[in-house]
Amino acid sequence: MLERVPLLPKHLHDYAEVVEAGTIERITALAAPLEGKRVLHLNATAYGGGVAELLTTHVALLRSVGVDAEWEVMSGSDEFFGVTKGVHNALQGAEIEWGAEQERIYLDRVRDNAVRLDGDWDYIVVHDPQPLAIRQLVRNTPLDRDGTKWIWRCHIDLTTANDRVWQFFQPFVEQYDASVWTMPQFVPASLSASRAVFAPPCIDPLSVKNLDLGMPFVREICRKYGIDVDRPLVVQVSRFDPWKDPVGVIEAYRKMRTEIDGLQLVLAGSMATDDPEGFEVWAQTEQAAAGDPDVKLLSNLQQVGSVEINAFQRAADVVVQKSLREGFGLTVSEALWKGRPVIGGRAGGIALQIHDGVDGYLVDSIEECALRGLDLLRDPAVADTMGARGREHVRQQFLSTRELEDWLRLFAELA
Ligand code: UDP
Fold first, then answer.
1. Does 3-202+400-414 match 215-397 in CATH topology?
2. Which of 90, 360, 368, 399 is within CB 3.0–4.6 Å of 96 for a Cys-Cys bond?
3. CATH number for region 3-202+400-414
4. Whose CA is nearest to atom 11 of ligand 1?
5. Of 128, 330, 398, 399, which is best to mutate to test ligand 1, by the most ligand atoms within 8 angstroms of its C-beta?
6. Which of 89, 239, 266, 324 is the best mutation target for the ligand 1 pocket, counting ligand atoms within 8 Å of the beta carbon and taking the most?
7. What is the pLDDT of residues 57-85, one digit of tens each?
8. Is the pTM of this model over 0.90?
9. Could you name the CATH architecture of 215-397?
10. Residue ranges per structural domain of the chain
11. Tell me: the pLDDT tens digits for 200-221?
């Protein structure tokens, strides 16, 4: 068996007070025919990054509606995760070294996991490229049952995927019964997959990260990290990854700072276990911050966990997610849900979440990011109004219950 992720239970009915009327009833009806079905979600990390965040809630909610769901994590190695991080970057358009050696490292490790995968599943949902080849590598084993439906969930924007790397992965994707994507634009034209479904990710309004948190708590948590909530604050929460452009955020902050006295910047980013690049980008970001005491670089290594992220997002006058490429960007919905306006890079799923000029701004450069930031910092009333609109937008489209409905519908269609 692969490593199983233990989960705290969640109850669909607890969501009734935050979701739109009729949602709970619709979900209950969709789930009834799927009662007792066995669903396995498989990914590469139980911690750090959006996929782990999503599965913590999604798998627990599947269980709460009677589906027999599990979440297992494949095992990797530094070498394997080095290769798959390269794959991730290449699928977002970067040039990387790719050849027989990388293919061997990738396939050997997925094969090890394929041998250890067991169970009797109605649906196996495989997330992202790391475990993707496992569907092929279990062929002619007891797991390769007729009744099992295989679904690949791609969280990445493949619009500008590096051809060589994509050509290696495409045949693996084509062996799945369905694939699920954040946006239609992400699906490569060359893909002849049997069924492509669109279901953007969602946030859990009842998780520690998103639960309402009183101002005294916010103030106290921020104080512990040297953040003064009485001074203006810009926050970006994301892994230390070049595509999240933390160095660009520091440059935008510097431009804003010349006009806004006492401005502070928080860059909070967890170090995911499948992301060896994190420490390198942290070092580059630290260098860019050049010892400025009002730039706080924080991570799980300083005990920044969900409640701290919640507090930083709430304390922010403006939240930034200045990604250059992005699958979805859960942090955008997280901040909008807290009533904060968000300035996002015009990339991937960020554009689904921000209505430009309504609940935040979409930007294409450091300059634009700084100008929009200044607009919001100078006019807190406008910032609050935009944030409030964002919260309603998230309530309608990006809460976990919507995602649960999408998946229940897909399972029923594939049955
Ligand atoms: N996150 C966190 N702590 C951090 C940085 C990020 O808990 O220090 C969370 C963040 O709140 C969000 C997820 O990690 O829930 C990141 O998801 P997103 O879709 O924004 O980006 P990804 O990391 O999947 O590219």
1. yes
2. 90
3. 3.40.50.2000
4. 331
5. 330
6. 239
7. 999 999 999 999 999 999 999 999 999 99
8. yes
9. 3-Layer(aba) Sandwich (3.40)
10. 3-202+400-414, 215-397
11. 999 999 999 999 999 999 999 9
